[in-house]
Structure formats: C-alpha cells, structure tokens
Amino acid sequence: MSDSDTERRQKQRIAGELEEPVREANHLARKLGLDPFPVKYWIIDYDEMNELIAYGGFQERYPHWRWGMAYDRQQKQTQFLGGKAFEIVNNDNPSHAFLQESNALADQKAVITHVEAHADFFKNNQWFGLFADDPNAAAMLSNHADAIEAFMDDPEVDREAVERWIDHVLCLEDCIDQHSPFSTVEGEGVERDLADIADQLDSLGLSDEVRRQVFDEEWVESQRPEEEAGSFPEEPELDVLAFLRRHGMAYDEDAERAVEFEDWQRETLELLRRESYYFAPQKMTKVMNEGWAAYWESMMMGEEGFAAADEFLHYADHQARVLNSPGFNPYKLGKELWEYIENATNRREVAERLLRVEGVTWRNFHERIDLDEVQTALEPDPALDRIAADRLDLLDADDPRVDAEELARARADDVDVNRYPWKVLTYEGLCERHYSLVKPQHRGFLKRLSQSDLERIARYMFDDARYADVEEALADVDRCAGWDRMREIRESHNDVTFLDEFLSQEFVDQNHYFTYEFTHSTRDYRATSTDVEDVKKKLMLQFTNFGKPTVVVEDGNYNNRNELLLSHQYNGVIVDARQAKQVLKRVFELWGRPVNLKTISKQLDDHDVEVARRRDREPVPEEVGLLIRYDGERITTEELPWEAVEHLAATDVDYDTKPDEWLA
Amino acid sequence: MGLRDDLERYRDVGEQRRQDLSEFIQYGDLGQSLPGEVKIPIKIVDLPAFEYDQLDKGGVGQGDGGTPQPGDPVGQPQPQPGDGDEEGDPGEEGGEHEYYEMDPEEFAQELDEELGLDLDPKGKKVIEETEGDYTDITRTGPASTLDFERLFKQGLKRKLAMEFDENYIEEALRVEDWGPDEVYAWARQQNIPVSHAWIVDADSNLPDDERDRWTSIDEMTEHVERESPVERIRRKGLKQVPFRREDERYRYPEIVEEKEKNVVVVNIRDVSGSMREKKRELVERTFTPLDWYLTGKYDNAEFVYIAHDADAWSVERDEFFGIRSGGGTRISSAYELAAELLEEYPWDEWNRYVFAAGDSENSSNDTEERVIPLMERIPANLHAYVETQPSGNAINATHAEEVERHFEGSDDVAVAYVTGPEDVVDAIYTILSTESNDE
C-alpha cells in the first residue's frame, strides 16, 4: 500500500470518527438558536494546515512571496510554541472548515463547535452581506490566482514586475470604503459614463431640435470629468484603490513619464481590491465574531458536556491557553463582552418584572426586594438542570420547555440522553438550563443592580402589567431574553458599533481594562485611565478603519498639475511618518506622477519636554500641517499653514486619555 | 507556482530587503537586539501602510486580577488586535516584526565592508594550559602518558645485554680441571654477562662423568659454537622483557603560548541635567554598534559602564542609557573611576577602549587640568569622546574641542561630533578608523 493510500485511510478513519460530533454539534447549535451556513469539514495533515493558514485559509491564491513568509512564520510558531488545535473556517456558503488530523478528539470537537458558531455569524451578520449574500470565495480566489499566474507566465510581462505591482497595491489594501457594498469598477470609466449620458438622452425622446440646441455634443463632452482643469473628486474618495483604478497611471522609467496602465496592471489592481472587500468584514468583526465563537464553543463544550468527561480536562486546558494569553486579547474581550450583554439583558428583564410588583418603585426597590432570594428563585428547574435516563419521568411532554418528540424517542431508548441530555429540551428549555444570572461565575451580577440602573429602567417602562408579589413576577421572567438579544446584536453590529454601544463602566471595572499612553516626560508607557469613555476611545482607535488612520483622495489634479493629493483625516493621533513616506513611493508607481500627502503632525522640542518634566507635567505638543511629497526621485516634507489642513483636523474627538494633571 | 515557489521568492526578497546596516544604525530599532545577537528588521515583512504612530497611539490593556491606577508604569505595550491580520486563530500572537539575526562577528564583518574598516585586533592575554604536541618527557606522570614504546625498547636492550649462552658456559665447566672460579674469570674476559653464583649453581648440577670432556678451553671453543643472543631469542622466543622503573618515561605536552584577543570597553556617559532626550538617544545609537562591533572582533569582550554627573558611578548595561540625574558635570570623575576599574584589566593582558559621550559641557578647567592628564595616564588602544549636541553648540561646551586640540594627530584619541542620527555612522567610522593598526 502506498503512503498516500495509508494517509487517505488515516484521514478516512478520522473523518468517520468525527461524523457524529459534526452532526450533533450542528444539531446542538440549532437548538441553542444559532442558524449556521452548512459546513463542509475537511481533514488535513499538519503541513497542509500550516500551508492553509499561510494562504489566508484558502487553497488557491495568487503567487506571492508573502504566503511563503507566512508559511515560514507559521511553521516556526507551531514548531516552537507548540501551537495546535487550529481552526480555519471560510466565509462561504457552504462554509469550509479544516481539521488537523493529528489533533486529539477533544480538540476536534472544540474546533467543530467553534466553527458552527462562526458559520452562524457569517450567515447572519449584515456586514458579511456587503460583499455578497451568497459568497463563493474559494472559486473567486482561485480565479484570481489563475489570472495572475497567467500574467506571470506571459512572456511579454516580467514576473518580478507583476510581483512588485502586487506589493504596491497591497500597501493600500485597507484604503477602501469598507462600509459600502462592494461593486466592481467598470472598464473605461469616463468613456462609459459619456456613453451612458448619450443613451439616457436618447431614451428621453427629445426632439432633435432640443438636442441640437441644448444637449449638443459639446454639452455631452462638457460632462466629461475635468481632468485637465479643476479638481476632482468632488467629495473626498475613501476608496483609494478604486480611484487609482480609474485614474491612475504607471510610471515608465525609460520614457520618464506616466503611461496608461497595461491590462494586467489594471486587472491585478481590481482583483486585489475585490479581495480587500471580501476580507474586510472579517477584519471589521474580529472581536465580535471570535467572541461569539468562543462563547458558544464554551457553552457547547463546557456547559453542555460536548466533550466527554475524559476529554474535558484536555479541552479546558486548551481553552485556558487561548483565552489567557497575557495582555490585551481581542478574543477574550469579545467573549467577556458577549457574556456581559447576556447578563445585563437578563438582569434588566428581571428588574423590569420586579418593578411591576405592586408597591415596588425604583426608590424602594432595595428595601422591598431581597436579591439573594430572587437569585435562588431563578435557579433552573432541577428536572431541566440534571437530565439523565433515569430522570426522564420528571419531564412533561406538554411542557413547552421539553421537546416532546425527542423525549418519546429517549424514553424508547433511541436517544442516548446521558450523552446528549440537551436533545430532550427545546430552545426555551435550554435557556432556563443555562440561565446566566445563576451561574457561579456570574454570582453578584444581579446584586450589583444599582438604584440609578433601576431609575433608568423605570423611566422607559409602561405601567401595564402588575404583579401581586415577587413570585408571580419572577414566573413571568423571560429567560431567553439574553440569548435573543445577543442574536439581534450579532446581526447588525460590527466591532466599532459593538464596543461603542455595549462597553460600560461596570464592564470595564469588572474586567480590569485600562488605557495607557506613552509619556514623554518619563519615556515609558503609563496607565492613564480606567474610565469607560477613555477605554472606549482607545478601542475605537484600534477598530475603526481597521485600526489605521483614514487616508482619502482629496484631489486628483493637485495644483493643476495632475498630481495626486491624499489627505490624512486627522483624529488627534499622528501617522507613522516613516511608513507613510514608503507608502507614497509605492503610490507613485500607481499614479505615475508626483504624489502628496497632507497630514497633521505633532511637534515637541527637547526644551519643552524638559520643562514639562521638571514641572511634573506632560509637554503639550504643537500641531502643524505637513505636506509630504514624492516626485519619483525625492521625498520632501514641507510645513503648511494651518488653514491648509484645518479641514482635516478632528474637532470633536480627542483620543488622548492622559489626565490633565499628569503625574501631579 | 505554489508553496515552494512562494517560499523561495520570500527568501530571495527577504535577503534583498534586509535593512541597510547604516540605515539601521541611524534609525532602526536597536532595542530588539541583545549584546550577543544583533537583530536587524527586515523591511518586507510588513509592507508599509498608512499606520498610526506607535507612541502617539496609546492603547488598552487588561489587568490581571486588578487594574493599574493612572500614572502606574505598564511596561511595553501589549499586542494589539489588528497587528496580525489573518482572520485570526485563537491564541495567535500579535504581529511581531521579523528580524534578520546577525551575530556580532557578522555585524563587524559587514560593517567593515560597508565602512571600509580593517581593525585587526591583537591577542594579548596569555591563556595558560593551552597544550601543544606531547613532545616533552618526564620521569613521572599519569599512566596514560607513559611512553611504552620507549620502555619496551629499553627493556629489550637490557635483556639483550643480560642474555648469555647458558650451554656455552656449561661446556666451559666440562673442561678438564676447570671449576667455577676459572670459568667465571674466563667468562668475564669474554664479556659474557654471567654471575658467579649462576656458574656455581650450574657446576653443582653437572654429572661427574662429563667434567673432562674437553682437555682445554681452546679445544672447547674450537668445537662448540657460541650462539648469539639474537639467535637465541629467535629460537626460544621472547619470553620476558625486563621492564625497569628507571626506564619509564612519560610524555608531556609542549606548552604553546596562545594569546587571547580580549578587550575591555569602558562606556562613559554624561547623565547630568543638560543631557536631554535626543542627546541620550544619540549616545545609544553611537555606543551600541561600537559595542557590537568590538564584541564581534574580539574573542572575549567585557564592558564597563560608567554614568557621571559631578560624580561617577558604575552601572549595569540595562540602566546605562536610561539614567538621568540632576547635578552638574565633572567629566574627570568618570575617568578617575575608569582608571580604578581598569586595574582589574591590566594593560599587558587586555586591549582597552575608553569611550565617553556627552554634550561637551564640563566644569571649568576640569578638561585641561584633570581629564587630559587622566586620558594620558590610562593606557588604551583608543580613547574616544563623542559630542552630542543636537541643537548646535552651547557656549560652555568646549570639552571635545579641547581634547581634540590637545591630542591632534594622535592615533589613539578620537573625537567625533554627532548632532543627529545622520551623523552616527560617520562618528563610528571616525572612531574605529583612528586606531593605528601598524605595530
């Protein structure tokens, strides 16, 4: 038997072993209210996994050295850091997920549950819909690979030139308009627009007279965007790649002038831009999406015992390693925030019910109601909490929390209820079984309900239903409120809006988040604030626009000389000037003529730092407008008068979190 | 195309795009390197992008079991999301930069090439016990070094010398009227190494009827052939070689005097109030590559770090570039301390470099009256002073000039001026090319 036969058999054996976990994980996910894309699982070996990770999760990508680099790094990382239990799942319908054959069964199960949650997120989050509702990414990326390989194979085109071109474009890969739906930039933009106008005139059915008089050829021609004179675009263009695709030119070194793009250049630019749009939602929802997957993974694996008892320790260890890596961890932030939202929603639901109890108001709430008793009363029904083959008598087929059909099968011994206790419950039953407020790790959450919280809740309540006592009120508590809310949020939010809306002071305090800044007087990083608004600001900075400064096209005919003017929309944090200069050199290759970047910089001189240090304060930098220019030969930097950059300066947001009385 | 191809392209591209050495020295991030391992960032790894300035950006951290209070130092920034950008594997570390690693030897070699230097360090300190071939010999020693060949030869010689033809002597006893005394006297005459006792013994075993076989000794020698020892050994085999203690010789290695190229580098830095941030960084940019270079050039390099204001004290490398103090400046304090610390590194055993840096401000007359005499008194391959004045000259900053004037034309004192990162490489060249290499 050949090696590859052995390998194939090995993979088949593993696949056989995983059939049941895959089927049951999907079943459980659906019971828990998730609605994932169907997932196709593939078993691959260690090297294939490393390769797949290096290529961004897809088998066919265009030839480029950076995949080689990623592979090299990946290999070293798994080799030296003992990384394992990798999960790759692609946003596709059906989604494709990859399992590494050498992983233990517990790891495979963890990966599968994690993947089901991602597939739910891909399907239901609206930001993923911006690229396409029904993506076929693998095919798209593979087509791109074929196209670029064909350019490289073309004897007329230098392979290295294609590679360099890709490098240039990749420097701007995040300069797109990721909040707008993707649309392809069509061929000869201007000519097409003019043809459109002529068509439209035709369709208006105007008389020849009118056409001659008003809409003559000169008029049509005048609709041509005025590249020679005047400035364009009218509004700053966020999609820098699209702008370059329409108006960019290549620089011909021999002729020493700008020339039209070659076809391969234009096409390469466009397909890299399309890939940027495809990957953008992933980047925009990293905290949410990973937090979501981690939340449901731990629900299924840990709380629903998807891992067998002997696998659980292994799983717990894996989970701890992923979430407890030191420092700031976006996955952990995501999971913690989802848990916080669940708890806060459930707590609010309880508070609303209790505020409707006869005689209870937000003022006397804490005197009239003992939250410890409430907490005890909220414990799940023991019949739902502990389900076993010999306890099935405790369940009632007519109870909405019980899945009558499955219960019947379980009683007939068709369902292994000791292994899959959740099968005999409905969504509602599972909500009660996993009700967050009574979990040991969340004890105290309910009791932190403050009078001001109550006042806020009471303010928005209609005075409808009334309960005679606490018991009656609690009987009405909707235990699905938390999960229902979570699913709503995963539909409409991205990381920025998610953090903006749900980060609270309570959350920041409970999870010990803080901001830090570099302080010039001490030359090190110092904690600056634990205030939720400050933490939020810093997080916004990290997640808005992929954590990068926003740079737009301000003028494609700068100084009336066909130069490109990019503007950095300054929000109080300056750009890395050295990198910006390197980017400009590459943008020059895509514009063919001189390129400029307007930005605002902060200047501090030694003397000010010294004076501030002596006074135990932070120095206040001076903001200055700068124009960085690259003409194909030299980089120059010129100070601009404030008026020239005033429109770029943020007026309302200040990302600096340093206290005013610094170090005092 | 495919993975193998992409990997190859990566290696090609990576080699080409390693940061240029002098650019690295001027602007690169020196902090990632260790004394024994120079890490030079590879440019390609992150294609440039419009990014926030790291220092200006700040960030969010998460306390472990508690929240740090505003004002608490929090160490280096923690990895931030978005640093590594694939769609994310849990536990994946935030994007580190890739580095090209060089050991200091390679660094020194490349710097030599880039700057056209050719510092050829000389060995000084004698390292004892470096053993050459085992060519010397003594009478005692460990068994393993016993020269057995010699012992055997000597034993053989001895045996040959002691061996005699027993039958021949016995025949002599069969001469009419000869007794042991006569035979012994005859044998001695013939240089046959036989003892009197042996003859007496042989005589007593001789049957009486054989005692007059020969009428005279002449008749006997005529009829009996004497067998030589060599013939006997060939016939009877070599049964026993008489080893004697006095023949034992032990081989002993010849001591080769090998000299180690070792160096002690004294780094002196002015940490007084006038040394501001940028100046401090310039010193680091100049000294660190010098340290690497010398580490790479010598077999064994040791470093001494001295910080001074009006007084001097010795510090660890970690602290050296970070210290600030308030006081005035008296450069001679550092040289006094250097002289004291260098006593541990005697000049006949150590190459010495004494590098000092500061903004040239010194208390009045200190340079002329104290520093220069001290510099003359401390023997070293090279003394250097690096003046860091990012904002041009201050009026009382005359130390460098005074030193330069005094030592003009000397090949063991260098003075370099650094006003910005762009001067650093020149300064390093000035310093390293000053040392005379002819001797």
TrEMBL record, chain A:
Domain of life: Archaea
Pfam families: SpoVR, SpoVR_C
Record-annotated SpoVR protein-like N-terminal domain positions: 17-351, 475-547
InterPro entries reported in the protein's UniProt record: Spore_V_R, SpoVR-like_C, SpoVR_N
Domain SpoVR-like C-terminal: 549-601
Record's protein name: AbrB family transcriptional regulator
Organism this protein belongs to: Halomarina oriensis
UniProtKB/TrEMBL annotation, chain B:
Family matches, as SUPFAM superfamilies: vWA-like (SSF53300)
Biased composition (Acidic residues): 83-93
Start and end residues of each stretch annotated as Disordered: 54-97
Compositional bias ranges of the Gly residues kind: 58-68
InterPro entries listed in its UniProt record: UPF0229, vWFA_dom_sf
One protein family per Pfam: DUF444
Descriptive protein name: DUF444 family protein
Organism for this UniProt entry: Halomarina oriensis
Upper lineage: Archaea, Methanobacteriati, Methanobacteriota, Stenosarchaea group, Halobacteria
